[in-house]
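@channel sequence for tomorrow's demo:
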Amino acid sequence: MSELRAEVLEYIDLLPDSKLEALRPILRLLTNDTPIVETNLTDEEKEIIRAGRIEYKAGGYIPLDEL
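structure tokens (generated this afternoon):
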């Protein structure tokens, strides 16, 4: 096992399930060679994304180290 893999596994062992749940989508994306691109968004979903981008630019987000 590589040193990097061992280090990552040590971090994972320390995380509670509630925080591991947040990692699940990221790990799925990282292990999937085929990118998943949503192309059939509804108008409501597009509005949610637009509002989220505005909020992010205004600093309205939670940094990962605070999760």
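heads up for whoever presents: The chain has a mean pLDDT of 88.
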